[in-house]
């Protein structure tokens, strides 16, 4: 088990190396440069050249790359061109928001998706099933920014149930401990701050949950349908077990295997940034910052964020693989 | 009084857009306490559907079950789903065909045994585990305490079938239904499993319905035999009369098709011509008529009645096979109280 984990982590090194090369080549082949974002359109060629020099962009690419790798080896990702703050710090400041949003969205998607998928399979071909399938199709099809604005217009502006922007009501003086607002409120016993942060999570959470929810519903439904036809479910019925035991132990446990994998991958996807949702709700996570960094050609931020996200993705995949071996005794990790 | 009396059982499957399918069409048979009754026939003759209908395991939608099945004073077909749940696994139990797919791959064997004990005998914790180990031991699984913690994929095919049998007999049911319990196993293991079943029913006085397409299994195990074709019982008799003097052309065909060790080298097998699909509706005549070597005009003039002789031999045929003809194929095939371990391998039949 430990050897397996170590091996998987060692595989990260070539992955990251390859990724850094590709990313570097891609970024520097983009037309325009960071100076265009930093300077006014009327800036002279001289000023531009000066800025490029000060950012170290006048040197040959391989030297720039070498410098990047040297710093990376010291776990330093450089400073952002546009804000001047270290990339690691920028990431640390924004990542908790993204994690909070991802967790909220996944709780919604899993908490509703699995029971609904199960019920749809049990009522295969009936009204609930048809509604669930078409509803989840809608969930995949509806553009997030449209859904986001719709939620805002209805639940925030018209009914005023939830706040429409940000992570916390401005002016609310809450103590920061971890950067996870809901958790901070609990840790400092400022429960009203937690509650406020939770309310801010609802709308972006729903918007972000729409796609994973739709995928989880469909996967659960398909998987349960398949398992219901399995011989061992018939055996369980033949033993006269209670319906709840059959459902929990013999149907859901097996049906969850493929769903668990996709939940892991979906979570990884959400963590790597929900640009649209974060933008619509001005949530301030890594997604919107990353989008900004692309238009600013902020090379260090882009390189750094994408490298960190790659590491996270690999770690999540590893966690999925490990959990799979716990769920399914036939898959044993060596 | 018989333990189980099945009267005129019929099962029809409905699917939108297609003609309803009558998988079982008026099956009647009885099972006495401690008796071993065989349901024999080729794939698709309705023998498995019959057993699933008795167990109440057919889907609720799209299936119509009619007739009656009196078991211990109650009609299984009229019982509420929850009383059927109380009955299944406790008073009547079933053993399935493919032991690997019939066991839950992600649940340890032990839990799959103890869950029955907990449900019907209120045994919990260590008590249930001890009883489960005892059960595994009784069905011949060595080192049962260790096996309890193992998963189905860690057991061999024969072990898995033994484990399934242990689950079925866990609550000492009065009736055991075994649906082709040896089909997925190799010949030596088949013989062992049959021997085990024979011992278990003898010890406990459990009645057994043995569903099989293998006449070798039937010859070694069953007291009464019902030969089924296209959803109906076409011949019913005790073991000896059926093997000594089969009457229905289908039974004769089945017996004649068994490959024999004493046949001269190079001799071809004697199949029944055609396939199960070449049949006509029972309402129009005998379903077997299109494949039957004895078919006459009268066969397709209406449904053949069940004829009962005074010895209890029953057959559904208007032109039964004559004594001489029947004895020609049957005599050598009769197995004088065969020992299973000898009989089964020689009767190896391709399914």
TrEMBL record, chain A:
<keyword id="KW-0813">Transport</keyword>
<dbReference type="InterPro" id="IPR035906">
    <property type="entry name" value="MetI-like_sf"/>
</dbReference>
<feature type="transmembrane region" description="Helical">
    <location>
        <begin position="197"/>
        <end position="217"/>
    </location>
</feature>
<feature type="transmembrane region" description="Helical">
    <location>
        <begin position="12"/>
        <end position="30"/>
    </location>
</feature>
<dbReference type="InterPro" id="IPR045621">
    <property type="entry name" value="BPD_transp_1_N"/>
</dbReference>
<dbReference type="GO" id="GO:0005886">
    <property type="term" value="C:plasma membrane"/>
</dbReference>
<keyword id="KW-0812">Transmembrane</keyword>
<feature type="transmembrane region" description="Helical">
    <location>
        <begin position="302"/>
        <end position="327"/>
    </location>
</feature>
<feature type="transmembrane region" description="Helical">
    <location>
        <begin position="257"/>
        <end position="290"/>
    </location>
</feature>
<dbReference type="InterPro" id="IPR000515">
    <property type="entry name" value="MetI-like"/>
</dbReference>
<dbReference type="Pfam" id="PF19300">
    <property type="entry name" value="BPD_transp_1_N"/>
</dbReference>
<comment type="similarity">
    <text>Belongs to the binding-protein-dependent transport system permease family.</text>
</comment>
<keyword id="KW-1133">Transmembrane helix</keyword>
<feature type="transmembrane region" description="Helical">
    <location>
        <begin position="101"/>
        <end position="121"/>
    </location>
</feature>
<feature type="domain" description="ABC transmembrane type-1">
    <location>
        <begin position="95"/>
        <end position="324"/>
    </location>
</feature>
<keyword id="KW-0472">Membrane</keyword>
<dbReference type="GO" id="GO:0055085">
    <property type="term" value="P:transmembrane transport"/>
</dbReference>
<keyword id="KW-1003">Cell membrane</keyword>
<feature type="transmembrane region" description="Helical">
    <location>
        <begin position="133"/>
        <end position="155"/>
    </location>
</feature>
<protein>
    <submittedName>
        <fullName>Peptide ABC transporter permease</fullName>
    </submittedName>
</protein>
<dbReference type="Pfam" id="PF00528">
    <property type="entry name" value="BPD_transp_1"/>
</dbReference>
From TrEMBL, chain B:
<dbReference type="InterPro" id="IPR050388">
    <property type="entry name" value="ABC_Ni/Peptide_Import"/>
</dbReference>
<dbReference type="InterPro" id="IPR003439">
    <property type="entry name" value="ABC_transporter-like_ATP-bd"/>
</dbReference>
<dbReference type="InterPro" id="IPR027417">
    <property type="entry name" value="P-loop_NTPase"/>
</dbReference>
<dbReference type="GO" id="GO:0015833">
    <property type="term" value="P:peptide transport"/>
</dbReference>
<dbReference type="GO" id="GO:0016887">
    <property type="term" value="F:ATP hydrolysis activity"/>
</dbReference>
<dbReference type="Pfam" id="PF00005">
    <property type="entry name" value="ABC_tran"/>
</dbReference>
<keyword id="KW-1003">Cell membrane</keyword>
<dbReference type="GO" id="GO:0005524">
    <property type="term" value="F:ATP binding"/>
</dbReference>
<dbReference type="InterPro" id="IPR017871">
    <property type="entry name" value="ABC_transporter-like_CS"/>
</dbReference>
<dbReference type="Pfam" id="PF08352">
    <property type="entry name" value="oligo_HPY"/>
</dbReference>
<feature type="domain" description="ABC transporter">
    <location>
        <begin position="4"/>
        <end position="255"/>
    </location>
</feature>
<dbReference type="InterPro" id="IPR003593">
    <property type="entry name" value="AAA+_ATPase"/>
</dbReference>
<keyword id="KW-0813">Transport</keyword>
<keyword id="KW-0472">Membrane</keyword>
<feature type="region of interest" description="Disordered">
    <location>
        <begin position="328"/>
        <end position="351"/>
    </location>
</feature>
<dbReference type="InterPro" id="IPR013563">
    <property type="entry name" value="Oligopep_ABC_C"/>
</dbReference>
<keyword id="KW-0067">ATP-binding</keyword>
<comment type="similarity">
    <text>Belongs to the ABC transporter superfamily.</text>
</comment>
<protein>
    <submittedName>
        <fullName>Dipeptide/oligopeptide/nickel ABC transporter ATP-binding protein</fullName>
    </submittedName>
</protein>
<keyword id="KW-0547">Nucleotide-binding</keyword>
<dbReference type="GO" id="GO:0005886">
    <property type="term" value="C:plasma membrane"/>
</dbReference>
């Amino acid at each position: 088990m430990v050897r397996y984990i170590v091996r998987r982590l060692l595989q990260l090194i070539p992955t990251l190396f390859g990724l850094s090369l590709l990313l570097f080549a891609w970024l520097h082949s983009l037309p325009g440069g960071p100076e265009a974002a930093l300077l006014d359109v009327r800036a002279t060629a001289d000023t531009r050249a000066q800025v490029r020099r000060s950012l170290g962009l006048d040197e040959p690419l391989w030297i720039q790359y070498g410098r990047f790798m040297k710093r990376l080896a010291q776990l330093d990702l450089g400073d952002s061109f546009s804000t001047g703050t270290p990339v690691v710090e920028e990431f640390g400041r924004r990542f908790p928001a993204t994690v909070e949003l991802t967790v909220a969205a996944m709780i919604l998607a899993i908490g509703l998706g699995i029971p609904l998928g199960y019920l749809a399979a049990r009522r295969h071909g009936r009204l609930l099933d048809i509604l669930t399938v078409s509803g989840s199709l809608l969930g995949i099809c509806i553009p997030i920014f449209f859904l986001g604005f719709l939620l805002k217009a209805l639940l925030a502006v018209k009914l005023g149930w939830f706040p429409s922007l940000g992570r916390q009501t401005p002016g609310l003086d809450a103590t920061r401990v971890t950067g996870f607002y809901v958790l901070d409120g609990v840790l400092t016993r400022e429960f009203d701050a937690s509650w406020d942060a939770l309310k801010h999570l609802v709308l972006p959470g729903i918007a972000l949950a729409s796609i994973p929810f739709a995928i989880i519903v469909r996967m659960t439904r398909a998987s349960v349908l398949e398992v219901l036809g399995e011989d061992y479910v018939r055996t369980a019925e033949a033993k006269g077990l209670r319906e709840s035991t059959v459902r929990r132990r013999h149907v859901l446990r097996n049906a969850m295997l493929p769903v668990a994998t996709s939940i892991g991958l979906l979570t990884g996807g959400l963590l790597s940034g929900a640009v649209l949702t974060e933008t619509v709700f001005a949530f301030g996570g890594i997604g919107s910052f990353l989008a900004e960094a692309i238009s600013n050609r902020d090379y260090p931020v882009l390189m750094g964020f994408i490298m960190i996200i790659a590491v996270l993705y690999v770690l999540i995949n590893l966690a999925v693989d490990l959990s799979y071996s716990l769920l399914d005794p036939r898959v044993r990790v060596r | 009084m018989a333990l189980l009396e099945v009267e005129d059982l019929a099962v029809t499957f409905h699917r939108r857009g297609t003609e309803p399918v009558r998988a079982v069409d008026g099956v009647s048979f009885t099972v006495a306490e401690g008796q071993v009754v065989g349901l024999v026939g080729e794939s698709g003759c309705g023998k498995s559907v019959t057993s699933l209908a008795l167990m109440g395991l057919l889907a609720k939608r799209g299936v119509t079950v009619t007739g009656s099945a009196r078991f211990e004073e109650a009609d299984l077909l009229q019982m509420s789903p929850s009383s059927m749940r109380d009955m299944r696994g406790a008073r009547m139990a079933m053993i399935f065909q493919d032991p690997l797919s019939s066991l839950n791959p992600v649940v340890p064997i032990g839990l799959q045994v103890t869950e029955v004990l907990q449900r019907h005998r209120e045994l919990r914790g260590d008590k249930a585990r001890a009883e489960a180990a005892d059960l595994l031991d009784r069905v011949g699984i060595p080192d049962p305490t260790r096996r309890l913690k193992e998963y189905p994929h860690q057991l061999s095919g024969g072990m898995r079938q033994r484990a399934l049998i242990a689950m079925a007999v866990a609550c000492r049911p009065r009736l055991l239904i075994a649906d082709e319990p040896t089909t997925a196993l190799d010949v030596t293991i088949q013989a062992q499993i049959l021997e085990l079943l024979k011992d278990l029913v003898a010890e406990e006085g459990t009645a057994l319905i043995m569903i099989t397409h293998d006449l070798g299994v039937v010859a070694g195990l069953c007291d009464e035999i019902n030969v089924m074709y296209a959803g109906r019982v076409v011949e019913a008799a005790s073991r000896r009369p059926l093997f000594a003097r089969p009457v229905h052309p289908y039974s004769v065909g089945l017996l004649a098709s068994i490959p024999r060790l004493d046949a001269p080298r190079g001799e071809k097998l004697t199949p029944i011509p055609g396939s199960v699909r070449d049949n006509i509706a029972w309402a129009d005549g005998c379903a077997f008529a299109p494949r039957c070597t004895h078919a006459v005009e009268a066969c397709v003039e209406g449904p053949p009645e069940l004829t009962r002789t005074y010895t209890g031999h029953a057959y559904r045929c208007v032109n039964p096979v004559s004594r001489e003809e029947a004895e020609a194929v049957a005599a050598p095939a009769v197995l004088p109280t065969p020992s299973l371990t000898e009989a089964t391998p020689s009767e190896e039949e391709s399914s």
